[in-house]
Amino acid sequence: MPLLINGLRVEVVGREITGRPVPGRPRRSYWPYLRGLPSLALASVLIIPIAVTTVGAFRTKHGVGLGNFGVLTNAGAGRALLHSLIWVAVAVALIAAGFGIAMLGHRVSGLWRILQPTLVVPFAISGLVAGAAFRIIFDPAPERGTVTAVVTAVFHSSPVWLSPGFIWVVLVSAFCWGWLGYVVSLFRAGLEAIPDDLARAVKVDGLRGWRRLRVVELPILLPIFGIIGLTLVVAAVRLFDLILITAPGAMQADADVLALHWWRTTNAGEDSGRSAALALVLFAVVAVLAVLGMRGLRRHWAMPESAIPPSAQPSRPLPSRNRKVLGLAVGVPVSVFCAFPVLVLLLTALHEPAAAGLHGWWSSHGLGLSSFGAAVNAGLLRALVSNLLIAVVATMLVLAVAVRTAFLLAWGGLPQRLTRTVVIACVVLAVTPVQMYAAPLREAFAYSGLAGLRISLVLVHAAAGLPFAILLLRVAFASAPASLVAEALQGQARRSAVITRVRQTCGPALTAVAVLQFVLAWNDFTVGFLIGGPGATPLSLVLWGEARQFATSAGTVAAAAVVSSIVPVVLLLAYWPTVVRGLTVGTRP
Amino acid sequence: MPSPGPFPGRFSRRRFLAGSAGAAAAVAGTAVAGTAAGCAAAADVLGLGRTVRVAVTWSAEELQAFRAVLDGFGDLPYAIDLVPLGDDISAAFGPQRPDIIMLPQPGLVTENHDKLQPLPDQVSPGWPYAAVWSPVSSYGLPFKMTDKSTVWYRKSVFAEYGLDPPPSWSKWLNLNARLARAGVAPLAVAAADGWTLTDIFENVLLGISPQTYEGLVPPNPRARWTDPVVAQAFRLLGRMWAAPGTLAGGVNRSLVQQFPEAVVEVFGHQKAAMVISADFAEPVIRRYAIDPGDVGVFPFPVIDGDDQERAGGSRQPPLVVGGDVAVLLKHAGDTAVDDYAVNLVTRLANEEAPLPWITGHGGFLAANLKTPIASYSDLLKPLAEQLARPNVEQPIAFDLSDRLGALGGSEGLWRVLQDFLVAVGGRGPTAVPDAADIAVRRLNDLALLRR
Testing the interface with A: which of B96, B195, B414 to mutate, by most A Cβ within 10 A? Predict the structure, then answer.
């Protein structure tokens, strides 16, 4: 029967209700789950070997049991565990130091223009290159090593920096150098995002110093503390290539960490169950830290905030003169600290190999480009092409698979529990150390004939980078305005408008994922070394092979290091603001 | 529509950097792809083409010298891919095997003979190799030989103090004491490379008792590590290292010093007088010596004991040799590559094959006794003659640590000797007997574990 309401003809069509109302759930279609299949297939490249290692850790000669964990009672393994825990403490100290620097340099104009590039460069440089640079700087011969020369000039004798005990100075400096830029940049992004009116209101209320820190900065920056804490602590526990290249052969037992100990145990031909147990212990340590970090991020992951940057602020109050001086007093030394090892590498590479082995980078004899020639002779160019291929293909594979899965998780209408499980699984997979899946994967590749081929490395890199990409993209997609997505899903907005808005809001996250994945695959040493063996990974072939007689090959090693670092450094310098925005999306207050 | 952002200038800088990165990559890509070598490299990278993969322990200059040897064969129907594995040469027996391994440890030949192909007979007719190579004759082709009983010194230092190369161990200790009193560090020890320490120890042991030395080789060793001769070898060596002021830079410096750094200390920075090193130190010395004419070499002296104990046994100086053998790996695959591998090994067996290394780079003694001695440098000629026509009474033996397998490796003998150096270095003769006993006991325990 037609009605007329406000000029609108309305017809009601219905039928009589018969019988009792029947309880039930809305019919759920299973088609969206198909979108998750590619990522499941790629992730199984890691999941299956992890399962194999876990089972192998519990399989002893007498059946299932905890016998293999007796490997921890070795003095060496106990010491390695202790050292890994010391590295966790180092990472925490670095976070605190980075926060201090970011706070002190906050709002000092002009400082960041100089500081920013020097902070980005160490992050772009791989652990192997950082270790090589610091080993050159801390060379025990006063004729070659910078620090030794300075200390000898002042005190007439210098400790031997690479010897047991002092090697920690070298390793900790190299680690802090590599990660300081990342920590400071992310904190700075968080601090910049604190709304000015909040800061002004707090100032008017008279809160100063520690109280202000506790009330304003710490709660707002908690998600960023969470991300940085997670990445840094996991990196510290998984440390492998830095120690391998910095510690001379005799010293490696004294600077041992769990990851390195696993490699030496496997090399010495120990029972595979015992190495699996060691890997499982390393994994347990890392997983516990990850879960703790996730609890700090719970608000972040469950309730993503808007990612649209605030509109241009009215002009900010200029910092006081004292603040400026303090900011510069902290910022300039940090900048010099970050730039110095790069300078040393470059100048060492500009000496001939024989001159670099005799004298330090400051001497004026033997300048020339023959170190680069020697590095090219050792196969550097071929290695670079190979590396480029692997990194590009792995990045494209990760993006192709992660975008669909992230969209599915964010807007696919999956049940809440399933989404949460998948997110936790992604976090755990993202922090899994390579040692958990290296041995079974190596055997699988050897068996299937893929051993030593680039395709196997591409697969492993893609699988290893997938979880992190999914996590980041999920948050980015989830923070797109809901109305926009609803319009897109229901077909009421034009497709190009939707795509443009999505690119605007999620573009930074996509670029961040692509750039980070490329840089990580390019700089990798651990995956190729443990799964491919020392002859397989392109860059390791050159750098690691040349680093065998380190001090006298300093010129060639430095040349190879410089050439292999150009691409990631330029890429990260170009895209750093986007990467920071992509990493901190969803954490703005 | 790009967001304006507070720093519009950044946008163009980012564009410029990204553009330059792209341009650089494009230029590099075309440069590499354009050259013929690039095409071959691309084929290699994509896994096309037949290549013979050769695993070697050499790196840097030695690797280039081996490449020169391979280039000396001219154009070959196959490509050769060198895989430098450094000290991890045993990884070549792992899952990804190459086709040929240039193996520096003949002990690994017997351990892994099930993975190796026996050498075809026509590879080296007449077998012109020294008797020490007989244990590996069916599986390995000897390529390079090393004389590990040499000591390199600076002639000017000896001339300044009126010293001559010592003919015996006791005279050597007196010489060291004389130099230390004058303020010159006598020895630069490269303890970061454990094999330098094992070479010195083997010389002392072989010089005291060749029977015990040969008896320690597995399988079924006739001697034990607890033999008093072994402890005596440790004590004699310990007293040399324990004398104050002997080690340049002290123990800490020696522990982080690798073999070329020790050579640089003696001949480059001129901080020490002697370095105990094998013949392959020659090119390193030539490279870094400030005064190339100031180089001398004397053979390892007779071990007659020192002022605290006499050493019985031979009156002849020891001669410890090492070397590299080429072995062929069994493959379940491509027979064409197998044929190429045999072809390469046959070429390497030729007596003229290593000439590019001998004349171009130096520090190479050919295992093939027919290689012309005239091609060696003046410093190496006497060593080559000694190897070609050895004195019958002189005890000649292959490097012990290479034959012990894992016991002679980085977790075995190397570590025991490094810890021994830490225990005695510069501490005076009183610390030596206990340290020697501890070292012997550790070696015995390790040997029993491996059995």
Answer: B96
